[in-house]
Each structure stands twice: as structure tokens, then as C-alpha cells.
Amino acid sequence: MKTQVVIIGGGPSGLLLSQLLDRRGIESVVLERKTKEYVLGRIRAGVLERGLVGLMEEAGCADRLHAEGIVHDGTLVSHGDDMFRIDFTELTGTPVIVYGQTELTRDLYDAREKAGGRIEFEVDDVTIHGADTDAPQVSYSVGGETRRIDCDFIAGCDGFHGVSRQAIPLSVRTEYEKVYPFGWLGILSQTPPVHDELIYANSERGFALCSMRNSKLSRYYIQCSLSDSVNDWTDEAFWQELKRRIPATMAEKLVTGPSIEKSIAPLRSFVTEPMRWGRLFLCGDAAHIVPPTGAKGLNTAASDVHYLYDGLCEFYKAGSSAGIDAYSERALNRIWKAERFSWWFSSLMHRYPDQSSFDLKMQVSELDFLRSNKAAQTAMAQNYVGLPY
Ligand code: APR
Ligand code: PHB
After folding, report:
1. Active site residue 361
2. Strand-strand pairing, 199-203 and 174-189
3. Fewer CB near the terminus (10 Å): N or C of the chain?
4. Which of 15, 30, 158, 166 to mutate to test the pocket of ligand 1 (most atoms within 8 A of CB)?
5. Average pLDDT over residues 288-309
6. Mean pLDDT, the chain, as a whole number?
7. Average pLDDT in the 144-156 region?
């Protein structure tokens, strides 16, 4: 079999890239290890930057996003019972849209199926061959049959645990990592959100976040120990702890209910350099991970897709490799800014086991500066709504 671009991974990165390429007549095949139902079952953040919204519009997949997505002009930040608001739209001219990643992925799957896009599910043994040659190939097995695809390019959109990053020799790649000394315990509940915008809460008991999927589906997180397990936390224990971390005026209005999903996620900052090796390009979580504090995971995957899509179109339509040659540098330039913001916001809002009393004073002082200084709020807002591509 032959195609122009083999895309390994049928998550948001792979699907968005495949759909965008298809709209420009560039053929791709998506290889996904899991079933579509499994992929759509993942619960992930859904705060969309303006750039991602634009890409979904360009992909012809933004109708439901605009119909059901919730425009957020700002967010609340709290410290104990003290609260202040960062007004994204006033400070940057741009809001964010809250729209679950599951829904965005569903829209992309629907579009690929409508376009007759080639997606192979439940593939195994995906192996990259000759990425550093002009005739790369990808082999894989499906239904007990081994197949091989000849292609021009390979997009490694297979996430942090995929095979693509590992295909780049250790002698070529450099990895940067920070593992945070805590996790996030998250709950999804069919309850109305406590507030119409997100609340990022710093409290002496640790971080908490009040988010949502829609007006009837809420998503809440509390910082927890890495030694915790989900079984350590009854729903009631979660709600009680959340109420102790958010401002009292919000805790009073919190509507609790049974969790329909409850999980603990570790927090990590991670970047691989370079994001290209020969005809292999890494996109999204395959190349980088951010702590979820700044809601940048999906949005940095989107900017990678933007740069790679641009470069591949330039190659196929204008016969120039300038775009693909610049891909890694362009993508990394924006990724490191998102890594910094996510690290900064995590450092500002969480309690660290080894924090000294001086460290705590620094954190409180920075929160106070963010509350009272327009330039600080503008910088935060610009990063949150998304730096330019
Ligand atoms: N072969 C084929 N598919 C694979 C393989 C493999 N060897 N390994 C992983 N995959 C698939 C996974 O099953 C998953 O569906 O690749 C996909 C990768 O999707 P994500 O992990 O969602 O990564 P990405 O598409 O880059 O999206 C990044 O999604 O995971 C969130 O926090 C992340 O919000 C960010 C966004
Ligand atoms: C979420 O809704 O899951 C969410 C929102 C914002 C974040 C992280 C997670 O920063």
C-alpha cells in the first residue's frame, strides 16, 4: 500500500492533521492502536485557544464547537477566601472556548468518516522503517495480518507512550523533564458547575480547580499526594476537601453528586528535541507534555499540527521543503513558551512538599502582584488564551 502521509495515532493531533491535509487533497492513513470507542472514552481538558478554534474551522469541523462550546471571557483565581478575576477578553481581545476534548475528537472522527478517510483501528506492532531515508515505510499488524505502507512522510501523533519518539535515535534526541511531587484527583459529575467560569484555587491545603464540560456536567480537581489511589477517596471525601480549598462563598453554592468518572493523573513537564528526524515528524503528546494547570496539552498539539500542515502543504503544493525543514524549530519555539507558562502557573497555584516559609511568602506575593497589576494579568491572559502561531 502507498500513501503520502502515514499518521500514527488517532487522537486529536492525528485526526486534526489528517482532516486538514484531506481538505487540501493530501492523502493520509491514520493508524490507531485502540478502538474509536476507547479513544472517545478518554476524559481530557477542553479549554480551546483561538488558534485551535481556527484550525477546527479550517478543517470544516467547528459547527458543533460553536453551537455547544461555552465562551469564557475570563477566569477566577483564588487564594483562600480571596478571589479575583482575570478578564481575558478585556486584556487580550480574545476569549477561550470550553468544549470537551472528547467532543472535539468526536467531531474529527465524524468528519474523517464522512470524507472517507482511511483509519485503521486496533493496530499492533507499528514499526517505522527508513525514517531517515527518502522512502520511509510503516509496518503494522491488524486482524492477524501484517501490512506495510510506503509513504513520503510519517507524522508521529501517538502520544507520550507511542513508538514514534523512540524511533529517533538517542544520539539525535535530547529529552527535558520535570516530574511534579503531586497529582490531580479529578471527578466528573452530572451537576451544574459551581460558577459560570473556571476557578483556579490556591489554598493552604493545596490546589483545586472548578471546571466544566457544559451546564449540566462539571469537572473538579484537587491536588493530591502521588501515593494516593482513587480508592482512598470516596466521593464524599472529595467534595469535603474541595469545599475546604475553594472560597467559602463558592463552597456554599457547590452542588455535589455521584462521580461518573474519578481518576488520578500525575503531572509532568516534558519536551523532546528535535521534533523531526528525516521524514518523521512528532506532533502533540508524542513530543511534549505539560502539567494540566494551564490547559495547554491539546492546544500545543494544535500548534504543532498547524506548523506541520503548513509545511506539508508547501511541500506538495509549492514544491518547497522550507516549511518542513523549519517545523521543529517553529514548533519548539512555541512549545517552550507553553511549557514555561504551565510550569509558572503550576508553581504559583500548588503547595509543594518542600516549600519553605520563604517560598510560601513568594507565592503569596506573586498572587498579590497578579491580583493588583494589569501588566501581570495581561501577561497571564495572553498565555492562557494562546500566544500567536
Ligand atoms: N500505534 C498506534 N496508535 C498509537 C500507538 C501505537 N504504537 N501508541 C499510541 N497510540 C494512539 C493512542 O491510542 C492515542 O489514541 O495514539 C493516540 C495519541 O493520542 P493522545 O495521547 O491524545 O495525544 P495527541 O493526539 O497528541 O493529543 C494531545 O490529548 O492526550 C491529550 O493531554 C493530551 O490534551 C492533549 C492531547
Ligand atoms: C478541565 O476542564 O478538565 C480542565 C480545565 C482547565 C485546566 C485543566 C483541566 O487548566
Report:
1. no
2. unpaired
3. N
4. 158
5. 98
6. 97
7. 97
What is the tens place of the pLDDT at every residue in 17-51?
A: 999 999 999 999 999 999 999 999 988 888 999 99
**CA-CA-CA-CA torsion sign (374, 336, 279, 126):** negative
Quick one: DSSP state of residue 255? Answer: P
Sorted by sequence, the CB contacts under 8 Å of residue 70 that are 6+ apart come out as: 97, 98, 99, 212, 214, 215
C-alpha–C-alpha distance, residues 22 and 213, integer Å = 29
158 phi/psi in degrees, rounded to 5: -100, 20
Task: Give Cα separations from 241 to 95, 251, 298 (angstroms).
Answer: 30, 10, 28
Q: How far apart are CA 287 and CA 174, in angstroms?
A: 11
Whole-Å CA distances, 315 to 1, 110, 264: 22, 28, 42
DSSP class per residue in 108-154: HHHHHHHTT-EEE-S-EEEEEE-TTSSS-EEEEEETTEEEEEE-SEE
**Sign of the torsion angle spanned by Cα atoms 343, 348, 352, 356:** positive
Ligand with the closest atom to the CA of 293: 2
- The CATH architecture annotation of domain 5-72+94-177+268-345 reads 3-Layer(bba) Sandwich (3.50)
Distance 2 CA to ligand 2 centre (A): 39
* Rounded CA separation 145/167 (Å): 23
Pairing of strands 28-31, 5-8: parallel
Q: What's the rounded mean pLDDT across residues 232-260?
A: 98
Q: Which of 3.40.50.700, 3.80.10.10, 3.30.9.10, 3.40.50.2000 would CATH assign to domain 180-266+350-385?
A: 3.30.9.10
Q: Is 350 an active-site residue?
A: no
Query: Where are the domains positioned within the chain?
Result: 5-72+94-177+268-345, 180-266+350-385
For residue 12, is the peptide bond before it cis, meaning its omega torsion is within 30 degrees of 0?
Answer: no
Summarize the confidence of residues 60-64 as an average pLDDT. Answer: 98
pLDDT digits (tens, 9 = 90+) for 173-221: 999 999 999 999 999 999 999 999 999 999 999 999 999 999 999 999 9
pLDDT at 45: 83
Pick the atom of ligand 1 nearest to 9's CA: 16
72 catalytic per annotation: yes
Q: Above 90 in pLDDT, residue 166?
A: yes
Residue 188, beta-bridge partner list:
219, 261
